[in-house]
Amino acid sequence: MATKPIPMEGGLRDPLTGLANADDVHATLAAWQANAARRGSSTIIHAMMVSLQRIDTVNVAYGESAGDGALIETARRITHFADDELSAGGWIAARISGGNFLVASLERCSRERWQWLAEALADAVALPVKNIGGDGTARLWPRITLLRAEGETSGAILDRLAGAFAESFEGQARRIAWVNGVMPLHGRSNAQLEADLIAAIDRDEIEIVYQPQYAVEGDRLIGAEALARWQHGKLGLVGAATLFTLAERADHVAQLSRHLSEKALSEASSWPSSLRLSLNITPTDLASANFARDFLSMLGESGFSPDRLTLEITEQMLLADLDQVATTLEALKAQGVNLALDDFGAGFCNFRYLKVLPIDLLKLDRSMIDGILNDQRDLSVFRAILAMAQALDLSVLAEGVENEAQRDLIAREGCAYYQGFLRSKPMTAFEFAALG
């Protein structure tokens, strides 16, 4: 993850999604304002209300449990987006009611950037939600209202966002609207952003940062996960999720993925032989029948040893042709590459993946760690996953470990590896080389 969210002040979470609830939002926004008042300044809060269309249709077509699953998946996408994109300040993500979600941030940004982030989040939420009601697929149409507030109470912020929704979208096909109806005057079109990205790839302007990973026993550095970042000249920092959304629009996913892999392998080739590299691969990669052959050729040219490499895949990318995915992964595995199932526990969990695919490692989503210190149910789920992994001879890495108490608990329970802000944030190649 790219940044730490502001801790929830209210202490309760939405029981369905695990996000903050409305009480948490009021408490957290009030705490932000109180902290600013103590410094003698006012607080500028950027907020967006994400309202899902068609959620009632999902309930009717597949049943309420399927609708609940779609809401859980939406919450996962919102959290991962905020983790990736809101790197400059604190943030909170909440489910306010039904299909209505809120994202609020202390990040300093222009109206143009906040609108652009809303567009990217809308793209992420609108991706198909598969395995609904068994083997169904649903698309949820998000509409988002935006607000830049200074000195307003949390109640006023929520009321203005909710009140603007009906009048902003009634009879209109658009999906983004500002509360005051005023859009940025100098917006950058999607076509311009796509062109910017292609040029940035050509000019090698996409940066890779590394999230260090540690063995729980002895806190020994074992390697790092490579994460993409792009410092856009006008919009600021762009995280991996939005990078690949733009690349998909421009039909440049394969080029971006290969560019990042080549760069990371090149930078990691100078690491000590004891350190591993983890790379994320995309659905577009796995959909290519030639991916394993082409990737192994690139890996050979880099000189980086396959047994020091882990490729990370998410459940979301495994929902298409599982047989082809298994064939591709077996070819990589045969050459010594390790394979990790990323974000485990965050969305729909199909245990057939663990049966069919040659997985070596489960990476537990940070949502699996957040509540284990004070929620017995969360701890029981954590223990059950560790027991299952042990039975299947899989290693487990916990993401999002942020304090010593969490690290001590996962150590007592037998989790082997972790990453998170407790030890370090993502860092440049130069900084990681000094760490190692």
Task: Outline the secondary-structure elements.
Elements: H1 22-38, E1 44-53, H2 55-62, H3 64-85, E2 91-97, E3 100-105, H4 111-126, E4 129-132, E5 136-138, E6 141-150, H5 154-169, E7 176-178, H6 190-202, E8 206-215, E9 220-232, E10 236-239, H7 240-249, H8 253-268, E11 276-280, H9 283-287, H10 291-302, E12 309-314, H11 322-334, E13 338-344, H12 352-356, E14 361-364, H13 367-370, H14 376-391, E15 395-398, H15 404-413, E16 417-418, H16 429-435
Parallel strand pairs: 6-7, 9-11, 11-12, 12-13, 13-14, 14-15, 15-16
Antiparallel strand pairs: 1-3, 1-6, 2-3, 4-5, 8-9, 8-16, 9-10
Helix pairs in contact: 2-3, 3-4, 4-7, 6-7, 8-10, 10-11
Terminus-to-terminus distance: 20 Å
Averaged pLDDT, please?
A: 85
Output the strand order for the largest sheet.
8-9-11-12-13-14-15-16
Assembly type of the chains comes to: single chain
Shape: globular
* Major sheet attributes: 8 strands, mixed, barrel
Number of DSSP-assigned strands: 16
Query: What is the percent of helical residues?
Result: 40-55%
Strand content: 15-25%
Q: Pairing-aware structural class of the strands and helices?
A: alpha/beta
**Radius of gyration using CA atoms only:** 21 Å
Helix segment tally:
16
Provide an overview of this structure.
With 436 residues, this protein is of the alpha/beta class. The chain is built from 16 helices and 16 strands. An eight-stranded mixed barrel has the order 8-9-11-12-13-14-15-16, surrounded by four helices. α2 (55-62) packs antiparallel against α3 (64-85) and α4 (111-126) packs across α7 (240-249).
